[in-house]
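[job 0412] stage=complex_fold ligand=arginine status=START
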Amino acid sequence: MNEALGWGRRYLMCPPSYFGVLYEINPWMHREVTVDRDAAQAQWEGLRTALVEAGAEVEILAPAAEVPDLVFTANAGVVNANQFVPSRFRHPERQGETGHDAAWFRSRGFQISELPEDVCQEGAGDALPFGNVLLAGYRFRSDAASHAYLSALTGAAVRSVELADERLYHLDLTFCPLDERRAIVAPLGWDRYGRRVVEALVPEPLVLDDDDALAFCANSVVVGRRVVMPTCPVRVGRQLEAWGFEVAVCPVGEFLKAGGGCRCLTLALDVTLAAPVPSADLH
Ligand code: ARG
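[job 0412] stage=complex_fold status=DONE, emitting structure tokens
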């Protein structure tokens, strides 16, 4: 069996005390839709419990009024061991989150590395480690230019993928690392070149059809051999089980109203990005 992921056992989550759909910055958000706060709280607790039962630790970021999307901690920034690169949000509606995120990481002793001010990058929502590289998405939220800065700040090799479908506006809606050779992938979200990049990177992909991609199947959280998913079609579940994974379905319907699923509600804190393989010693 393939080796399990070397990360994904410690997460940051933020309770949905102030969560709501108060503005529209992605095609899923409609202000006239009301969020049921009690249902959201119960779903959020359900996700936290599912992660803990899978063997993960969950740390808590205090919720804050006026930033309803703070619950989507995946977008806080990029974690690399004790380094934290705070996001630069595309939309003014989310820019107020950065201070809360950076303060939490600073208080935990992380070293903060800043991206330039004129470059957008939305954290782990658009950057996920796979094998020896950081797979990074750009276009709707993150700028392609952010990738070189991410690489310079973290030392990681970054592989860029252009996102092509507005409904899948963050990379983590299209890509979910499962172990060192496998990932759930949603080609619907990428252009032709991006599909080739992922094909070359992932030896054994679990390919989602368009409907499953749009149900946010790829927005799952992997804790060892447990895959915590917002929904799991039979075919996907069978393949995961054949590969030795256990599926835990965790409904997060209230958060789908804001365009977020299970993964969006979490940020892995135990990621250490690999340094690029050194070139041959010439001495
Ligand atoms: N309403 C949030 C936004 O549009 C949802 C964020 C989802 N996060 C994610 N990592 N995909 O920014």
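The mean pLDDT is 96.
[job 0412] exit 0
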